[in-house]
Amino acid sequence: MKAITVTPLVEGSVGLEDIEEPDPASGSVLVQTVAVGVCGTDIEITSGQYGWAPSGSKKLVLGHESIGRVLEAPEGSGFVKGDFVVGIVRRPDPMPCYSCAAGEWDNCHNGMYVEHGIKELDGFMRERYRADANALVKVDPGLGKLGVLLEPTTIVAKAWEDVTRIGNRSHWEPKAVLITGAGPVGLLAALLGRQAGLEVHVIDQVTSGIKPELVSMIGAVYHATDMKEAVSSPDIIIECTGVPALVFEATQQIGTGGVVCLTGVSSAGHTTDIDVGLWNRDLVLSNKAIVGSVNANKRHYEAASEALSKAPREFLEKMITKSVPFTDYQEAFNHGTQDVKVIIEFADI
Fold it and tell me: Domain tally for the chain?
C-alpha cells in the first residue's frame, strides 16, 4: 500500500512510497484512511526540525489529523464495518506514569509517550492502518470527510475544559472571549466559545477573504487590529498563534479574574525587556491565571466529536480550503495565504 513518509531531521525527505500492510499485532480494528489534515507540525517535521521514527526504522509515516472508515472489527469492539473513526494521536508509554495510567496521557510526566506521525509511531498518511478499539473514536457519519477536523478540535476542547476548571475556582460569569489567530485552531476555539453562548472576538492580520467570513458565519466578531482595540479586558483569552508578542500581550489585556490559555507553541530565541515586577503585581492583584494546554485524551476527542456534530455544516466545509489526492501530496505542503485547512484524500466516501 502507499504511504507518505519522511526521514526525521532530514529536510526535503518527504515522499510517497510502498510500505507493508499493517501488522495485525498493531490493533484488532482495520481502518481505511479517507483523509488526513496537514498542519504546522507536519510542515515542521518535513522541514527537518524534529520528528522521531519508530524503533528499528529510519522513516516515519506522516499524519496525525485523520478520518477513516472501519474495514474490519472484532465482535464486541464497539465498531462495525463502515463506521467513521478518528485515530487518537498520543498513546501512553509502555511503563505509564500515573497520568498515563489514568488515561490522562496528554499530561504525561515522564515524556515516554508516543504519537502517531510525530514521535515513534507511524501516522495516518497511509491507505490503511490498524488500531485497538480504545485508540479510536467514532464520528457522526453525517460528517463524513469533515471528521478530519476532529483532531484539531480536541486541542481546543481540552483548552476550554482547562479554562472552565480554572475560572470556576470562584464565582465566575464570563461573557467576552478573545481568540488570537484565525487559523484552524483559532476558528475551532471560536466555534466552541459560541456554542457555549459567549461573546467571541477573533483577531488576525488579514483584512479580507475566507477568515473574516468564517468568523462571521458562527456569529463571532472579526478584528484585523490589536487586542486592546478588539475588546477591552476580556474574561478569557485563548492564544492560538504562539507569537511571543501576543502571548505577553494576552497576559496584560486579560480582565480581572480572567484566564489566558496558551495553545500556540513559540519558537525559541525571542527576547524582550519587561518590568517583571509590574507584570507580576498585575497578575497577582487581579487574580489572573495563565495555563498552557497541549494534546488531548479520549474524553476531549469525544467532546470534539459532539461539538462538530452540532456545528454549521457550511462552516466546516469552508474551513477545508484545499483538498488534494495523495498522489499529489506535494501540493498539500504548500499553503497559500488564504488557506485554512488543507487535507490529503486517500479514498472516496
Answer: 2
CATH of the domain at 284: 3.40.50.720
Domain boundaries, position 41 = 2-138+319-345
Handedness of CA 348, 132, 83, 40 (dihedral sign): negative
Q: Are residues 182 and 126 in the same domain?
A: no
DSSP for 11-44 reads TT--EEEE-PPPPGGG-SEEEEEEEEEE-HHHHH
Out of 292, 311, 332, a domain closes at 292
Give dist(CA 246, CA 255) in Å, integer: 16
**310, containing H or E segment:** helix 298-310
**Rounded Cα–Cα distance for residues 209 and 68 (Å):** 30
Tens digit of each residue's pLDDT (9 = 90 or more) over 165-182: 999 999 999 999 999 999
Nearest to 347 by CA among 135, 80, 71: 71
* pTM for this prediction: 0.96
State the average pLDDT for the chain: 96
Give the contacts of 25 (CB within 8 A, at least 6 positions apart). none
Give me the residues paired with residue 202 across strands.
Answer: 179, 222
- CATH, residue 112: 3.90.180.10
Q: Identify the bridge partners of residue 343 per DSSP, sorted by sequence position.
A: 37, 323
